[in-house]
Amino acid sequence: YGSGRAATVTAKTDVCAYRLDRASFKYFLRSQPMNEEDMKAELKRVDKVIDKVSGVTTRYGGKIMRQFKPMRRWLWFRWHGTILEHAWKASLLNMVVSVGFAACIRHFIKPSWSIGMIPDKENLVIKRLLGLNKLWNYQLSLTTFILTFFLSQAYGLWREMYTIGRKIQGRLNDIGLLLASTVERNSKGKYTPDGETILDDVAAYSRLFHVF
Q1: What are the residues facing 191 on neighbouring strands?
Q2: Which residues, at least 6 apart from 199, have a Cβ–Cβ distance to it below 8 Å?
Q3: Which of 11, 36, 73, 146 counts the most CB atoms within 10 A of its CB?
Q4: How far is CA 139 from CA 99, 130, 146, in A?
Q5: DSSP E strand stretches across 33-122
Q6: What is the pTM for the complete model shown?
Q7: Cβ 43 vs Cβ 51: under 8 Å
Q8: Closest CA to 63 of 71, 54, 72
Q9: Strand (E) or helix (H) holding 22
Q10: pLDDT tens column, 32-52
Q11: Contact by Cβ (8 Å): 175, 206
């Protein structure tokens, strides 16, 4: 008991044998059969999770994949999930440090130029900062090039994935229309139990495919 056993089965015709691993077999053997009401409740719970993952806000308020609206005004008023939400603290810290550094320079060296004007290159402190200024310009050019290049590549990838997603959505819609129009019906024009089972199975698989 509790160990693997072998069995010999002889078939008269060609058959297809399926193999179930021991852990799955014991799980289904020990689990209690679900009645129809419990099964419907479980399916509703699974559908709710799938809809949240896929971002269906009209039913369950999807929070994992937020809905996107291709409108300029809507996009400018977004805050959560944008680069501004993640970068404003570092940007503000850099600005405060820069203002403090400029204030210290003006306080200690008593510059001859006014605020907002180009500093005097003959000033000893400014001469020492010229090398840092050249390094900053090199870094600025390199950073601008990298950000521009990768941003264009990211946008191209996004457009490609968006197009592919729309194509998949269209084919899923075609499958749904074909099944809904050709599935088995009774004499009154309503779906038979077998037809409803096929539609439910295809709908569940389509939602899972949409998520993954």
Answers
A1: 185
A2: 179, 180, 183, 191
A3: 146
A4: 20, 14, 10
A5: none
A6: 0.42
A7: no
A8: 54
A9: helix 22-30
A10: 666 777 777 877 787 777 666
A11: yes
Q: In whole angstroms, what separates CA 156 from the centre of its chain?
A: 17
Q: pLDDT band at 1, cuts 50/70/90?
A: very low
How distant, in Å, are the alpha carbons of 31, 105, 108, 110, 146 from that of 121? 83, 14, 17, 14, 31
Q: How far is CA 136 from CA 39, 42, 94, 131, 141, in A?
A: 64, 60, 14, 9, 9
Q: How far apart are CA 107 and CA 55, in angstroms?
A: 55
Cα–Cα distance for residue pair 119/191, rounded to 1 Å = 83
Helix axis angle for 193-211 and 36-54, nearest 10°, is 30
Predicted confidence (pLDDT) per residue in 160-210, tens digit: 988 988 888 888 889 888 988 888 888 888 889 888 888 888 888 887 776
CA dist 211 and 46 (Å) reads 12
Average pLDDT on 138-150 reads 90
Separation CA 142–CA 195 (nearest Å): 62
Using CA atoms, how far residue 16 sits from 11, 13, 19, 24, 176, in Å, is: 10, 10, 10, 20, 30
Residue 203 DSSP code: H
In DSSP notation, 101-144 reads: HHHHHHHHH--SSPTTSPPPTTSHHHHHHHHHHHHHHHHHHHHH
Q: Tokens 């014991």 appear where?
A: 26
Please report the DSSP string for 135-185 in residue order: HHHHHHHHHHHHHHHHHHHHHHHHHHHHHHHHHHHHHHHHHHHHHHHHS-B
